[in-house]
Automatic annotation (TrEMBL):
Subcellular location: Cytoplasm
Record gene name: pgk
SUPFAM superfamilies noted in UniProt: Phosphoglycerate kinase
Residues where ATP binds: 212, 300, 331, 357-360
Organism of this sequence: Prauserella isguenensis
Name this protein carries in UniProt: Phosphoglycerate kinase
Keyword Nucleotidyltransferase on entry: no
Amino acid sequence: MAVKSLDDLVADGGVAGRHVLVRSDLNVPLDGATITDDGRVRAALPTIRRLAEAGARVVVTAHLGRPKGAPDDTYSLRPVAARLGELLGSDVPLAGDVVGREARDVTASLADGQVAMVENVRFDPRETSKDADERAALARELASLVGSGAAFVSDGFGVVHRKQASVYDVARELPAYAGGLVLSELEVLRTLTGDPQRPYAVVLGGSKVSDKLAVIEALLPKVDRLLVGGGMCFTFLAAQGQGVGGSLLEADMVDTCKRLLAEAGDKLMLPVDVVAADAFSADAATRTVAAGEIEDGWMGLDIGPESVRRFADAVGSAKTVFWNGPMGVFEMAPFAGGTRGVAQAVADGDAFSVVGGGDSAAAVRQLGLPEDGFSHISTGGGASLEYLEGKDLPGVAVLSE
Ligand SMILES: Nc1ncnc2c1ncn2[C@@H]1O[C@H](COP(=O)(O)OP(=O)(O)O)[C@@H](O)[C@H]1O
Ligand SMILES: O=C(OP(=O)(O)O)[C@H](O)COP(=O)(O)O
């Protein structure tokens, strides 16, 4: 069955007076309760606004960070609901729970064209449960919030690779439609899966190491160059027997990295130098050292200048570039040079270039890089990677069941 879109929903008898549950990806970077980059909220806006303007009673669900399946104020969606309200130009009430009494009250009291949110859906342990029955139970409760006659719009591209209750299971409980953001992201990424112009370079960094190691294996045969920086690189350096001190390391993935290094040969490029620090802090003492010479008590928080030159050369000569994951802890000025240097090289080059991921997109904007230097800035990092890898995205596949 073909995926139905938001256009179909609006055309199918209209949405005026109907409840519509929208799953967005509003997982924004925060400094305390301050949003440091609202790109994902802005990206979610067109779908939410279109539904509201068509008279729907819109209930938005989203996650923020990775709370441990229980309410945790650090991960409250309050700042996000406030920002969404500012951008919409009307107040967005936020229920203090996910499917409890407040969620039911807020949902029931919506007027036509109004938008409300429920709290971080990951406060409910069933959202991310491996047990399909537990997830289905939460999905039924989410569906019953909006009642019969309601519809579900899946618009959180950054999370469609997660088989989670509010992304996957809920689409089986309500008539389900793909939002404009999901469809437009897939359309751009499709151009990278066909026959990309070569050389094709993929740059990986960031901190979700174990998620992305699996992706490397699948991408290796498809790309000409795979550049690995950020927190990702230290497990590879450790696999080469190099000293990584207190850097981010997934010890149980070292053997996998050994195997990947052997398979990849010189396709896979690692940093040759790193900016090491004696603490995870913007005020830490720093040193640039050879990649294998990080001492105990020090940690690698950025790739070094020689690595930036080599990575910049590789992306500068590529005709297609996909980049996910910052090269260092760019949020702190002393560790932003690697991300800035590589991003600038992508922007200066003439490759078809896609940068994906909440933090990577935020880095482009925060470091003042020209957004028009990239062919596309995607809201999803892991989701884009899994798509490029050729995997089915559960949150998309379920829409055509
Ligand atoms: N060497 C490093 N050590 C620890 N964290 C790092 C390192 N390099 C990058 N990071 C962190 O990775 C985070 C982004 O990772 P990730 O979520 O995987 O990227 P994206 O959101 O773009 O997909 C940033 O907050 C950044 O500070
Ligand atoms: O930030 C996200 O993904 P990304 O860092 O891969 O872009 C999404 O909101 C998914 O979050 P998750 O990786 O905690 O499931």
